[in-house]
Amino acid sequence: MKKRNSGILVFILLIVSTFCGQNKKMDSLNLALRNAGNDTTRLQVYLELCEECNMKDNLKYALPAIKLTEELLSGHPDSEVRRELLRQKGSFISFIYAYYLNKKNYSKAMEINQGLYPVYRELEDTMKMERIFANTANCIFWGGNTARAFDSLMSRLKYYEVRGLKKYIGFYQGQIASCYSSVNDSKKALEYYSRSLKLNEEMGDERKISDILRHMADEYSQLHEPEKALDCIFKSLKLIEKEHDLVKNFWIYFRIKACYEDLKDFEHALEYNAKCLALANQLQIPGLIANAYSFYAGTFKKMENFSKAEHYEYKSYEILKKLDDKRGIMFSLDRLAQLNYTIKKYELALKYADACEKIAREENDRLALRKMYELKFRIYQAKSDTKNALKYHLEYITVKDSMQKLESHSALEQKEIKYEFEKNEEKRALEQEKKDAVAKEERQQQIILRNSFIGGFLLLLVVAGLIFRSYRQKQKANLELGLMNETIARQKHLVEEKQKEIIESITYAKRLQEAILPPQEFVNAHAPDNFILYRPKDLVAGDFYWAEKIGSCFYIAAADSTGHGVPGAMVSVVCSNALNRTVKEFKETETGRILDKTRELVLETFEKSTSEVKDGMDISLLCIDSKNRNISWSGANNPLWYIEDSVLKEIKADKQPVGQTDYAKPFTTHQIEFKSGTTFYLFTDGFADQFGGPNGKKFKYKQFSDLLLGITGVTLKQQSDFIDKAFEEWRGVLEQVDDVCVIGIKI
Question: What is the CATH superfamily name and number for domain 517-746?
Fold first, then answer.
């Protein structure tokens, strides 16, 4: 009974809070939190507190809420309740992400954003996972590395364009449009918004279509094209009305009235002002009512009806004072001061200007200060008060000069960003031209193949006639074959028994081969930030990976033995054993000498055969000496890639295998600078050689490197998932052609 009464009290408090100002509502919500009778209610109150509180208080409510969700999640291993808890946890993490964005701490915001990945991965919400990737790019953008952020978004867009996934293509086109908008390049923003709009119209996603149309309206307004802006906004309004979201309707009406003002159509502007006010009163949201009155004031000011403009602005000001909305009060005081100056009520204008200046100082808002100093200068000049006019003119000049320096710097930055954007666009256009040329050549080849097929088909008809002629002759032979069926059935049973034995033997061989692979725990112990993607083509594989710790040196390699399946697996055991003997028995430590000695041992093993055996392996061998901060590498046919400061670098391998070759030479040992944050990639040729995609072509190394560059912003575990997913999507229904081994190590 006590819990029930507590729940009713919380419910009443929440309802009462909706009719109060922000401070009273926060007090009511905090009281509701203290009286919450169960964890579900506590989480709901925490959510409302996060939505209502000032940004600076986000951590105060979101952190304990996350702790509570984690405690509850431990008691719900798998259920719909768990999914709801995960969604709530995602919301609270997003509030913390917003907090650090507001603080302009973009590195911390990016770190918090990454914490959303395991939440949405468990929820299998792929769109939210893409949002995490886009947020990472945005943090990089706002942090100043605009070129890298743009490249990251363009790379992701290209990735999904190749796969023809419209939902994700439209999403990233919108993200790129937003980047252009942020540097005031409205034409380019409209270009990408238009592409995204077309795709979403094809998919019939009305909510996305509505959002894009609103963004396009804003860009047309920036370009002073109110007719086009109105066309977009009315189309958006039709879709929003289906959502029954009155707050969205309110802001749509505001945009419409602003467009009519630009067109000097004040009759329609006032009509939509009235709609804004009616909606705000219906919703009973004081902040929106204050905005609606201020909208009226703006329209009447443009109509030069200053008395009505002052009347409505003062009504807005009174509501904002009750809400204790400091910045809202400051802007309203600014407008009241300007209006009273216009109608020559200088004393009243000074009163409002003084109050506005006081808040601007508290908020450190230099733009508002500059406007007030300029206004006071004009007021005192009109009153012939030379002393005060000069005082505020000097104050105005001081603030204006400091702001101009910042604005000039910002304008220069925007020009540099636009240049980077345009350079990348040109690069992408050239790449597209090359692709079109290749596609044209492929079409011509298809025409040749088609003609060849027609000729072959005619030839086939001739052959078919000959076959039919021999058909009757074969009928007699078929009678004889029928007599053999019984014998074949017995032999089939015998073959099935033998096949079963072979499969059992291969399965056991698989367990033996797995025994030579280093455990993941061993690799984690010496290289904590890593992933190993290992996909054998058959039950057993020719590819294998190898790791060993000798002194302060940690060795790790990705190797591709000759062949795959059972023959490849047998060669891999020989090669792995040779590597072990080289470092343990013969004490070799230099990577090049390790490969030289391994080749010697592999050849020695196969020399015992009476027939000539040319088997061996291609390998990429990395040595990390964390103690002495040294890194070395050697390769046989397989290169080393590593990403340093967002740039992919390559060290080419020696063009010879670890095995029999006509012109053997010592393997080269390459030394690499030990730089924290560098990610190394070791791999065999199986990934790049896989056939698939829309045209059944090889994946190739260029596309592989683009994939790695496109996922640099995520953890290595997430990179492994992205690479594995990319392989599956590329392969599609086609058979895997070779073993695949990809290793990532970050120092």
Answer: PPM-type phosphatase domain (3.60.40.10)
Assess whether pLDDT exceeds 80 at residue 110. yes
Q: Which residues of 409-428 are buried (b: 16+ CB within 10 A; e: fewer)?
A: eeeeeeeebbebbeeeeeee
The predicted pLDDT at position 680 comes to 97
Q: What is the DSSP string of 100-114?
A: HHHTT-HHHHHHHHH
Question: Is there a contact between 33 and 42 (Cβ–Cβ < 8 Å)?
Answer: yes
Do 69 and 40 meet the contact criterion of CB atoms below 8 Å apart? no
- Selection from 653, 736, 619 nearest residue 689 by Cα: 736
Instruction: Using alpha carbons, select from 601, 606, 599, 583 the residue that is nearest to residue 657.
Output: 599
The residues, ordered by sequence, that sit 6+ positions from 450 with a Cβ below 8 Å of its Cβ are: none
Nearest to 216 by CA among 255, 248, 243, 247: 255
- What pLDDT is stored for residue 130 in this prediction? 87
Lowest mean pLDDT among 59-68, 90-99, 404-413, 565-574: 404-413
**CATH 1.25.40.10, applies to 151-243:** yes
Residues contacting residue 563 through CB under 8 Å, at least 6 positions apart: 542, 571, 615
Distance CA 394, CA 388 (A): 10
Output the six-digit token pair for 480.
Answer: 């004889």
Model-level pTM?
A: 0.50
Residue 253: φ, ψ to 5°: -60, -40
* Cα–Cα distance for residue pair 249/256, rounded to 1 Å: 11
Gap between the Cα atoms of 621 and 681, Å rounded: 11
Report d(CA 189, CA 212) in Å as an integer: 11
Give strand pairing partners of 545.
558
Give the pLDDT of residue 3.
36
Query: Cα–chain-centroid distance for residue 692?
Result: 24
Give tens-digit pLDDT for 137-146. Answer: 888 877 777 7
Q: How far is 205 from 504, CA to CA, in rounded Å?
A: 52
Residue 410: which pLDDT band, with cuts at 50, 70 and 90?
Answer: very low
Q: Cβ(727)–Cβ(740) under 8 Å?
A: yes
The rounded distance, in Å, linking the Cα atoms of 643 and 746 is 9
Q: Are 668 and 654 in contact (CB under 8 A)?
A: yes
Q: Inform me whether the pLDDT recorded for 294 exceeds 60.
A: yes
**CA 388 – CA 377 distance, rounded (Å):** 7
The pLDDT-based confidence of 19 (bands split at 50, 70, 90) is very low
Helices (H), 517-526: 520-526
Give the Å distances, CA to CA, from 552 to 34, 489, 549, 633: 56, 63, 7, 16
pLDDT at residue number 17: 39
CA distance 278 to 255: 16
Per-domain residue ranges of the chain = 151-243, 429-515, 517-746
Q: What single letter denotes the amino acid at residue 202? A: E
Residues 6 or more apart whose CB falls under 8 angstroms from that of 357 comprise 368, 369, 372, 373
pLDDT of residue 412: 44
Query: Is the separation of the CB atoms in 664 and 656 below 8 Å?
Result: yes
What distance in Å separates the CA atoms of residue 261 and residue 114, rounded to the nearest whole number? 44
Measured distance CA(430)–CA(635) in Å, rounded: 34
Strands 616-625 and 658-659, by their bridges, are antiparallel
Give the pLDDT score at 5: 38
Over residues 223-259, the pLDDT tens digits come to 999 999 999 999 999 988 888 888 889 999 999 999 9
* CA gap 724, 585 in Å, rounded: 37
pLDDT score of 449: 62
CA dist 736 and 725 (Å) reads: 14
Instruction: Kindly list the distances between the CA atom of residue 419 and the CA atoms of 158, 180, 416, 424, 426, in Å, as whole numbers in the listed order.
Output: 21, 11, 5, 9, 11
Both tokens of residue 512? 């033996």
544 neighbors 517 (Cβ within 8 angstroms): yes
Beta strands in 350-400 (DSSP E): none
